[in-house]
Amino acid sequence: MGSRPEGPAPLEIVVPAYNEAGRLPRGLGLLGDKLARLPVRATILVVDNASTDGTAGIARSWRGPVPVRLLRCERRGKGAAVRAGLLATSAPYIGFMDADMATDLAALDDALVLLREGRPVVVGSRRHGRSVVEGYALPLRRLGALAFNRVVRDIAGGLSDTQCGFKFFAGPLGRAAAAEVRTAGFSFDVELLAQCVRRGAVVTDIPVIWRDRPGSTFSVRRHSLQCFVDLARIRARVGRAGPPAVVVRDVVTAPGAVSGPVVPPQGGLSSASGLSSSSASGAGPG
């Protein structure tokens, strides 16, 4: 791989965490080991979402192959935590992942390649034809996810899976979109993506290997109604956000192997963000 240049890390990954003392050590261990093998330097930002357990202490004292820093977010809700984390970044490339690492980290290789090629938004999709999904068998949850994603497609640029906890952005775009997000709960992904679409972003969805992990804080019974209330509010704020995003599929031949033509960002986004490939140096209702 060779030595990597010093200086600010080109990649920052936000990990929202609410009472994740049980799962966070494993998640940070896996993520840190993976990031240490990437061709660019990376850091992790754990956002403690007003936890009442030892989450903050674990993140604060963590020692691993990549730096981990801690941010406290007193406003409850995954959306609030992710928003706070994205706004606290400064890297050219940013993203967020769930603490349980349900999405296999092999997808990071693909996401980084695509970001460096100029893709402004890269998201994991469990409904991509080449994704491998394990343990996602609860009929009520699957039915709710299907209904949810049908409702939000026109808001979020036609994506078939808005809720996979694996999303990456060109840094300036991600921070600008996050600044406009008002949804604190699990539906925040929709508003975040819609704000990217409004800015002319091309959305690339990639296949992932996704394994259901026990301990998710999302509950179909407790959170579904609020999710749909939030969607109504998002639609009122954002509406049909101008021209739909170009959703690029079939870019990846299999999880972990990028191929296919590069689709440049629309609307002059690459020049607005100041990025080029040479400058690179739990789950919600879905």
TrEMBL record:
Xref: Pfam families: Glycos_transf_2
Ranges for domain Glycosyltransferase 2-like: 13-164
InterPro entries: Glyco_trans_2-like, Nucleotide-diphossugar_trans
Ranges where the record places region Disordered: 262-286
Name listed for the protein in its UniProt record: Glycosyltransferase
Species name: Actinomadura graeca
